Every structure is written in C-alpha cells, then in structure tokens.
C-alpha cells in the first residue's frame, strides 16, 4: 500500500481528537501523526512537521480573527487546511478552509472530504503533470537504483539528506514502488539505467 | 454467515471460491459429490473444528474466532495444516506464478529479465519467512504442547517478527500494471491475475496464524496445562 497521508489535528476537545484518530486510522489511508490542543502548542512544532492535512477547529480563534484565520498558518505547499466544526459558523469563517468537516458527518463523507481537499491541493502545487516524476526525482531514482545510500546521494547532488528522503517519499508515492530492487527494475524498464550499471 | 458441520462442501466452495486452495491442503479432492463437512472429516480423519475455523477465517476476513471455539483445535493438527500450506505455496503456487512472470519477461525486450530476478528476490523473502516458522516457531509450539512452557522463546517474539513480505509483492504489481513495455496483454493479465490470487491467499494464510495459532499458543503459554501431559 502507498504511504499514508499524515494528519495534524489542532482541537481542544480530547474526546474529539481521540475519535478522529481512531476512526481515520481504522481506514488505513490516513495517519493522525500530530495532535495539539492549543494553537500555541501547534505553533511551536509547526516548523518541524509536514502534515498532508491540517485539521483545525475555528473555535480556537477569537471571533474577530476567524474571518482571516487562514493567514495564521504558514502551510507547506500541498497541505490541505480542513475545518472541524461542532457548531454554526458564518460563511466567511468557513471559506477559510479547503473543506469543512462537521462532527455530525458520517465516516464516509469525512473520508470523501479529506480526499477532495488533498486532491485540490496537490493539483495546485504541481499543476502540469502531478503524477509523473520530476527531473530531479528521476535523478534521485537513478542514484537509488544504482545502489547509492541517501548520504551519498545527498553529497553527490549537494542537497541535505532530508531532501533526499523527501524526494524518495515522493518517488514511492508516485510509482507505488517501495523497495530499492523494485526501483531498479523501474529504472531498467524505463531505460534510465543500463543493465551494466547494476551488476 | 459461518460454515457449520452440516453444510455441504460444494455449497461452501460455491459461496467462497478461495476455498479452492484450502480444501487440497486437508487432502480434500474435487469430486466430493454431496458430502457434508462432517462426512468428509470422518472419512479423511480431518479435525472438524480446525477445518471449519480455517474455512471461516479464509472466507470472512473480519471473523474473529472465540477462544472457546479455538480450544477444540489441537495445535499439532494446526501446525500440520500450516506446513502443508507452506509446501503448497512453494511447490505449486510460486512455481506457477514464476512461469507466468517468465512469460511476461520473455515477451518484452532484454531489460525485462530483471523482472524475473526481482521475483526471485521476493520468493527468497517468502522462503526465509516460512523457514523461520518451520525451524523456530513450529518446533517451539510442539515442545510447548509436549512439555509445557519453554524459557527460550515465546509467541510474542514471533508476532513482532511477523515480517512484512508484502512490500515487494506490491512493487511487482505496480511494475506489471504500469511499467512493462510492449508485451502480450493476455500474458501480462494472466500474470497479474495469478499475483492477485496469490496475494489474497497469502494474506488469509497470515490471518490463520494471527487469529488461530497465536491466541492458542498464548493461552498455552499462560500455563493452564490444557494441552500438557
């Protein structure tokens, strides 16, 4: 199975957080990787995490700040901002989110909404051909197929090991191939490398 | 719906085609006419509780057997079944799958020989996994049954090491679906179909281990002496 979408939840009610975590993880498609019960808690960790979906309760914002709450977040490209509401909010507040999940939604519609939000954002992040590997990813893939380690690849391309890992995650997400030997087969079948490169 | 002893074998197979691979592991051959579960079990001296539980887990992946029902299964019989399954995979299913993959590889350009090599790498992992069970886990369980709790091992270790051999299978599916250039479509479809069936069967096999073997062994490890001498 392809790697799971990581979700961060910022919600003050512990029961809601536990419920979201239990329901979503049961489906296997998502992983609730980070939970925060205050905005401050989220703010501290924000620079270090890269969730695919950020679920936020608008109740965490003062009435006056709600209509522009999106500007509070510096979202990494491709991250979806999802509102989690338990009561009525005005239209302006709701428009701050890519989608809004209501606590009364059934599980299927929650999943549908999350998927919609994810697709929406990956399209705008990578507009021309989001499913194909980028040139950079192809370079990294070739290096992986030839048996280089992440550290070696990082040095060769003058990038950080973390960046290599991110590229590799994206390669796996796009191709569905996780093992190094599988990536080697991919590279051979697509004529990116030659048989002699791997012998 | 769960299967019971009065049910006809034919009706069971019509209800769940996955049993096509299960029956032969108990020595049940096609052509059983109108025989019921209890008929065939007494005829072939098969443990009926084991036969029914295996068929039920195979058919309903969500089915979690009650420990009281499991207690009617003798562990040595279960292990014999698991060993049979392993040899079925190694001697028949994997060989069959390999010949299908080979056809795909032969049908396209030279780089496709990598496909077979990759498949063999996967098979190696499966073999290693089976042989760990056969050389470490099963003998341990047999000792446990015969002599009571053993110090050197426990089934928790096995649960932890129940390694993920699905990764390469997933990779192979992706490669066959997306990246094999210019080859005979029907050959490719055959290989994929076989791969899907194999994967499903292997997953159910793992369920038998997780839902029948592990809970039974855990209970025995608690040392209530049920199976002990």
Features:
heterodimer; A: about 200 residues; alpha/beta; Rossmann fold; Arc Repressor Mutant, subunit A; 8 helices; 5 strands; about 15% strand; B: about 230 residues; mainly alpha; 2 domains; 10 helices
Can you offer a commentary on this structure?
The complex is a heterodimer of chains A (199) and B (229). By secondary structure, chain A is α/β, with parallel strands linked by helices. Chain A is 44% helix and 14% strand. Chain A is elongated and about 65 Å long. Chain B has 2 domains: 9-63; 74-221. The model of chain B has no long low-confidence stretch (mean pLDDT 90). In chain B, helix 6 runs antiparallel to helix 7. Chain B is mainly alpha-helical and 229 residues long. Classes of the chains: A alpha/beta (199), B mainly alpha (229). The interface between A and B is medium-sized, with 16 and 19 residues.
Derived structural class of chain A: alpha/beta
Shape, per Cα inertia axes of chain B:
globular
Find the CATH topology of the largest domain in chain A: Rossmann fold
Number of domains of chain A: 2
The number of distinct structural domains of chain B comes to 2
Percentage of residues in strands of chain B: under 5%
Largest β sheet strand count, sense and barrel closure of chain A: 5 strands, parallel
Q: Please count the helical segments of chain A.
A: 8
What is the N-to-C succession of helices and strands of chain B? HHHHHHHHHH
List segments of chain A where confidence is low: pLDDT < 50 over at least 5 consecutive residues: 123-128
Which whole number gives the mean pLDDT of chain A? 86
Q: Regions of chain B with pLDDT < 50 over 5+ consecutive residues?
A: none
Structural class of chain B: mainly alpha
Topology of chain A as a string of helices (H) and strands (E)? EHEHEEHEHHHHH
**Taking strands numbered 1, 2, ... along the chain, how are they ordered across the largest sheet of chain A?**
2-1-3-4-5
Oligomer: heterodimer
Radius of gyration of chain A: 20 Å
Under the CATH scheme, which architecture of the largest domain in chain A would be assigned?
Answer: 3-Layer(aba) Sandwich
């Amino acid at each position: 199975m392809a790697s799971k979408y990581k979700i961060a939840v910022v919600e003050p009610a512990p029961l809601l957080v536990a419920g979201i975590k239990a329901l979503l993880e049961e489906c296997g498609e998502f992983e609730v990787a980070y939970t925060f019960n205050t905005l401050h808690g989220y703010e501290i960790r924000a620079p270090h995490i890269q969730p695919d979906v950020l679920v936020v309760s608008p109740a965490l914002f003062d009435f006056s700040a709600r209509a522009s709450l999106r500007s509070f977040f510096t979202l990494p490209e491709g991250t979806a901002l999802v509102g989690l509401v338990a009561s009525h909010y005005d239209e302006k507040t709701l428009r701050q989110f890519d989608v809004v999940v209501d606590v009364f939604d059934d599980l299927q519609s929650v999943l549908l909404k999350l998927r919609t939000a994810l697709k929406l954002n990956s399209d705008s992040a990578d507009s021309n051909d989001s499913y194909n590997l980028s040139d950079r990813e192809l370079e990294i893939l070739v290096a992986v197929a030839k048996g280089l380690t992440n550290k070696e690849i990082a040095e060769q391309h003058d990038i950080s090991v973390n960046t290599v890992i991110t590229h590799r995650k994206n390669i796996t997400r796009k191709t569905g191939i996780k093992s190094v030997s599988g990536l080697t087969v991919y590279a051979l079948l697509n004529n990116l490398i030659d048989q002699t490169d791997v012998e | 719906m769960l299967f019971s002893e009065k049910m006809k074998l034919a009706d069971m197979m019509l209800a769940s085609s996955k049993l096509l691979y299960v029956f032969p592991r108990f020595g049940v051959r096609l052509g059983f006419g109108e025989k019921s579960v209890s008929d065939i079990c007494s005829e072939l001296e098969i443990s009926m509780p084991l036969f029914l539980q295996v068929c039920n887990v195979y058919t309903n992946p969500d089915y979690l057997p009650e420990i009281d029902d499991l207690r009617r299964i003798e562990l040595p019989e279960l292990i014999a079944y698991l060993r049979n399954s392993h040899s079925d995979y190694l001697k028949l299913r994997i060989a069959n799958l390999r010949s299908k993959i080979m056809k795909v590889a032969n049908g396209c350009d030279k780089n496709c020989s990598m496909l077979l090599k990759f498949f063999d790498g996967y098979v190696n992992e499966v073999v290693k996994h089976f042989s760990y069970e056969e050389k470490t886990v099963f003998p341990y369980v047999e000792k446990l049954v015969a002599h009571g709790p053993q110090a050197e091992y426990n089934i928790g270790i096995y649960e932890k090491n129940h390694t993920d051999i699905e990764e390469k299978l997933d990779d192979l599916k992706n490669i066959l679906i997306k990246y094999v250039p210019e080859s005979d479509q029907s050959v490719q479809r055959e290989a994929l179909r076989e791969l899907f069936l194999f994967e499903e069967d292997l997953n159910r096999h793992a369920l038998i281990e997780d839902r029948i073997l592990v809970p039974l062994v855990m209970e025995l490890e608690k040392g209530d002496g049920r199976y002990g001498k």
